């Protein structure tokens, strides 16, 4: 029996729970929020799709009752405030660090062996914070950002190519920030053929630029940040762990020398399986990509430094 807890029953958390249930990824899902009745209501609404969609996962909603999360195999943290148009993700640190810290501590009391997937922003820094406060083995803490950024990269690539969305390849590494993410254009491909064989440099540059501000574009349109693709990306990572998929997914991982960086969590390709991050994969980067990665790491270190004053 597999059990998953999703903390935060807002836009992202409820969507993640809905995908977990709809795709039958876990046997049992607990949705927890601090706001009275919200998790219970969303869980009830989602479970009322069960007879329509022929679903077998059991979803329960609870208000701040961590005893219900006991023995979870995977926990997904989405609690925290989202940004508004014009804001950066980094500006959320003051409020979200305290929330992520207290949620992590309570979760671990009841699920000491869980793999933790962090979604709350600024995600790389929140993932690093979880490492610092929990002392868990590094493989058990995964930040979700690259999975979403890579999905957006593939969306814009498929549009530019006029291709089927399932037939394009693209990966984004680096920080999960408007200026720190790095869509690896050189590795973008359509059915194994480099995308640069089909698209000129200016088009590829626009695909990369649109990807980097993908979250900001949606925030401007929606008045709050996105949730369908973020929730689904969170569920995709849960699936990779629970089903031991050994799948290569870009995610925020604690680096200890990989890509020439240490003591931070940042987006890198990694194999995800039953132990969480099974191993980090080191892509060969050219000089320009290496420089971008180091610049991105510098920015993430700077945001991490702000943790000192906020929790
Ligand atoms: N990493 C990513 O790729 C990514 C993508 C989308 C959103 N996000 C981030 O995810 C977070 C959630 O976004 P959202 O759109 O779902 O926001 P939301 O406001 O819709 O939902 C957040 C929920 O967290 C709950 N919450 C707050 N404090 C809590 C606590 N202590 N315990 C339990 N629940 C608590 C709130 O009551 C709310 O229901 C934001 O920080 C957002 O920036 C990250
Ligand atoms: O853009 C945001 O603030 C939310 C999230 O990080 C996203 O990329 O959708």
TrEMBL record:
Substrate binds at residues 83, 89, 121, 152. One of its GO terms (molecular function) is L-lactate dehydrogenase (NAD+) activity. Its EC number is 1.1.1.37. CDD domains: LDH-like_MDH (cd01339). Keywords: NAD, Oxidoreductase, Tricarboxylic acid cycle. Gene3D superfamilies: Lactate dehydrogenase/glycoside hydrolase, family 4, C-terminal (3.90.110.10), NAD(P)-binding Rossmann-like Domain (3.40.50.720). It holds the Pfam family Ldh_1_N. The active site is at 176 (proton acceptor). GO terms for biological process: lactate metabolic process; tricarboxylic acid cycle. It comes from the Bacteria. Catalyzes the reversible oxidation of malate to oxaloacetate. This is Malate dehydrogenase. It comes from Duncaniella freteri. The gene is mdh.
């Amino acid at each position: 029996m597999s059990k998953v807890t999703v903390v935060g029953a807002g836009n992202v958390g409820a969507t993640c729970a809905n995908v977990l249930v709809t795709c039958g990824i876990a046997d049992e899902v607990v949705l927890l929020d601090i706001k009275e009745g919200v998790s219970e209501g969303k869980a009830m609404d989602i479970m009322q799709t069960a007879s329509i969609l022929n679903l077998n996962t059991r979803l329960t909603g609870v208000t701040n009752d961590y005893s219900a999360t006991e023995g979870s195999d995977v926990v997904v943290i989405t609690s925290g405030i989202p940004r508004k148009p014009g804001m950066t993700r980094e500006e959320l640190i003051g409020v979200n660090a305290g929330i992520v810290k207290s949620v992590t501590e309570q979760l671990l009391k009841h699920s000491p062996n869980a793999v933790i997937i962090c979604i709350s922003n600024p995600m790389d820094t929140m993932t690093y914070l979880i490492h610092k406060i929990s002392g868990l083995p590094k493989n058990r803490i995964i930040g979700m950002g690259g999975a979403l950024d890579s999905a957006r990269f593939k969306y814009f690539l498929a549009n530019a190519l006029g291709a089927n969305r399932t037939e394009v390849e693209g990966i984004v590494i680096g920080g999960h920030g408007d200026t720190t993410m790095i869509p690896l254009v050189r590795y973008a491909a359509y059915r194994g053929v480099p995308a640069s064989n089909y698209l000129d440099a200016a088009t590829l540059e626009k695909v990369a630029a649109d990807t980097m501000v993908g979250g900001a574009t949606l925030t401007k349109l929606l008045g709050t940040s996105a949730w369908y693709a973020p929730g689904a990306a969170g569920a995709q990572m849960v699936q990779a762990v629970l089903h031991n998929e050994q799948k290569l997914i870009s995610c925020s991982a604690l680096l200890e020398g990989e890509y020439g960086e240490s003591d931070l969590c940042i987006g890198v390709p990694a194999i995800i399986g039953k132990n969480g991050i099974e191993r980090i994969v080191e892509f060969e980067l050219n000089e320009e990509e290496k420089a971008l990665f180091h610049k991105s790491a510098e920015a993430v270190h700077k945001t991490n430094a702000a943790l000192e004053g906020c929790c």
